[in-house]
Amino acid sequence: MNEYRSHLSVTTWIVLASLTIGVSLTLPERIYSISVFGSPVDFQLSSTFLAGLVALAATWAGLEAALRTHPRKDLLQHSFRFWGLPTAIVLTGAVLLPTLNNQASWIITLVLTGAVLATSMAGEYHTIDPENMSYGNARLLLNGLAYAVAAIAFILIYLSRNRSLISATLIGLTAGLLAMDLLHNNQTPTRLTILYSLLIAFILAQFTVALNYWPFASARVALILLVGFYLLVGLAQQAMRGKIGRRRTFEYLFMFMITVTVIFIFP
């Protein structure tokens, strides 16, 4: 077994064990209330939350160890750029698993979380070097996973029926993490990738606040956000390549309006 695969295997098992313990182990819960912009927000410290933190730490440490085994270490500056998608996968799994009461569904979800996490981390490894023969397939796979995770996360956030302060923040955080994964490459300065990721996160967070005033089902809102996320990422990619212009911007905005209109009209 290659060294990087060994790191990814151990990391995946630690993450799955942490998520399982978080659901199975019951610890005394503590609720802390804080005030944000004059609005009270309750923060719940539970076994699920602590297990999620352990799973995140294991993901970052394991992925970093795997990336450092790559022969092109000169391309690994700011390696946190590769953390976005795996982080979003672990967060989504940590939120989804405690809500499942059916044992079969819980086991299937846990297995899928581990499989998708391992696949994403392996894909990140193969996108370090653009000249690698596996780069194209790995990048395509990561793109598909990123949009799939975005759709699931957006639906879960809206199903929770939280206030705009919480839902918009979570949408922005998820979008920012996934955008960083979709936008990063070795030809673009890291600061530019971070800037565009933060911009996408901010726009979607503000868009979420507006959508919270509309009486639409969670799936419909999630689709609207997913389309917006896809188009914003596309615009950012074109801008980073220096190919953005009025015509292309208009095309993206026109596609967005048509898609949203279709989502609004049809049930």
Helix vs. strand class: mainly alpha
What is the strand tally? 2
Sheet-strand content, in percent, reads 5-15%
How many structural domains in the coordinates?
Answer: 1
Q: State the order of secondary-structure elements, H for helix, E for strand.
A: HEEHHHHHHHH
What global shape is seen? Answer: globular
Largest sheet: 2 strands, antiparallel
Number of helices: 9
**Helix amount:** over 70%
Low-confidence segments, given as residue ranges, are none
> If you average the pLDDT, what whole number results?
82
Identify the strand order in the major beta sheet. 1-2
Output the radius of gyration: 19 Å
Q: What separation lies between the terminal Cα atoms? A: 50 Å
Structure in words:
By secondary structure, the chain is mostly helical. It has one domain. Helix content is 71%, strand content 5%. The protein contains nine helices and two strands, in the order H-E-E-H-H-H-H-H-H-H-H. A two-stranded antiparallel ribbon has the order 1-2. Strand 1 and strand 2 (39-45) form a beta hairpin. It is globular. The mean pLDDT is 82.
